[in-house]
Amino acid sequence: MRTLGNILWFILGGAVMGLGWWLAGLVAFITIVGIPWGRSCFVIGLFSFFPFGQEAIARDELTQKEDIGTGSLGCLGNVLWFIFFGWWLALGHLVAAIAMFITIIGIPFGIQHIKLAAIALSPVGKTIVSKEVAAAARMHNAQQTVSNLRKK
Fold this sequence. Notes:
Blueprint: H1 2-30, H2 35-49, E1 54-58, H3 59-63, H4 72-101, H5 107-121, E2 126-130, H6 131-151
Antiparallel strand pairs: 1-2
Helix pairs in contact: 1-2, 4-5
């Protein structure tokens, strides 16, 4: 089902959306200052091509290591992104989701637009992985938290 959803999504707008994100990423890289946002644009672009079966997850949640995008600079980057780009990109995805929810056939596509809206709000410090990998990372983190609580 994921494959069929991804094929339909790609043909019916996902390819254009992903290429648009990648173009924005190239522009951001050219500015040098925009490199962190450019990386995020490439991540969102890849997610836009094939969103079914994928999930956005914080890199520190996945790797259990902080990096420049998951620390205070990443937070600042997300604040700047939200102010200048994030809110209107997320709004666009929410409007598209509402339009998709009008038909029964469009409901899965509406759900994907909501996922894209969520990552469009604050993409710095996030990466895209399969749903299974995200669930395994969260389960591992939960088990570590329980283990740490039991030691106290």
